[in-house]
Amino acid sequence: MTELPSLAGAAWLNEPALQRVMSAIAAAGGEARVAGGAVRNALLGEAVTEVDLAATLSPEQVTEVCTAKGMSVHPTGIAHGTVTVVANHHPYEVTTLRHDVETDGRRAKVAFTNDWEADAMRRDFTMNALYCDARGRIYDFTGGYRHVLSRSVIFVGSPEQRIAEDYLRILRFFRFHARYGEGLPDEAGLAACVRLKQGLDGLSAERIRQEMFKLMAARGAVATLKLMAEKGILAHLLPYTEEWPVLERLPPDPLLRLSVLAREPAAMKERWRLANHEGKRLAAISSLTPPSPGLRALEQKIILYQIGPEAWHDLVLIARARSGAALDDPDWQSLLALPERWPVPVLPVTGADLLAAGMNPGPDIGVTLRRLEDWWVASGFTPDKQDLLKRFT
Questions:
Q1: CA–CA dist 154, 43 (Å, integer)
Q2: 108-112 and 138-140: which strand pairing?
Q3: Rounded to two decimals, what is the model's pTM?
Q4: Are 342 and 304 contacting, i.e. CB atoms less than 8 angstroms apart?
Q5: pLDDT per residue over 173-183, tens digit each?
Q6: Domains of the chain from N-terminus onward
């Protein structure tokens, strides 16, 4: 048996706010342990940015004891046994130990328990079924530590059973492999995902988007997406291209990668229920002509002025990836940095200026502004307000 290390010296574990929550639960006769991701990341030597707790007390008991100790408690997921405790301005999700009573592939009915092993056995992957107590002692009921060391994403128990409980776990399997895995994914887990892939069709667009955006930001995203395509998984999520070399040359920006991966990028707003700003960004990428280093300086500035820095940045990155040029090519680097060298200017005159200069209110104001803007742009953005008003008069 592999000897388990201790996390006693971890700074995040000794954070006073976290210890305060765990101590309050212990003082009431219960026990709280850090669960899942924080333990996994600590063992991998990666940053711990979020700490979740599992506890033997019920949500109502957690609420009562933590409130009595001066902390605020919010019922953020009470139906699943989760409350958020805020201590010293730090929020911690505290979830009562659970075991599944009934599942339908999308959500589970749970019953509370005080059995730590039962709670571990309902989790998705062994590397997410690790716990540590307030003193840093690690508890491993599923062999997760060994799999952390080998960077292997392994389902807890039967892969088919875990997936049948929630088909989103298919995407989580690939996402965790892209983020933490090394080498090829676990054969049994992969085979189960392929066999049960039809279950993806019943998932909500919001849940798919959440998992896929995390996957596409991972270090192994492109190789994993390619594997998902080969295994018939990706076709259940979107119509896709096979521009794998282009995707490899893009930074780990999920939306940027989606704009290349999706056959119809603009349609993804509705398909994955993207936020409005995400949909607008995809629409801009798919509808605008990308700039290139061959353009003259003024032409570059005119395009940047017309489309704005965000679309410029996206289009240049994609165009560079498709060009085959080296990522550190100086001409492309210069093009990418244009918004930093040349902040997009604002037309120096407004409708109010034209009215003050004697123009009558009405639609002619807009027409005149557009004509002045065209001249200002063609003149290299150099005429100032006085020059523009002289041209008007």
A1: 16
A2: unpaired
A3: 0.89
A4: yes
A5: 999 999 999 99
A6: 1-150 (3.30.460.10), 288-341 (no CATH), 351-392 (no CATH)
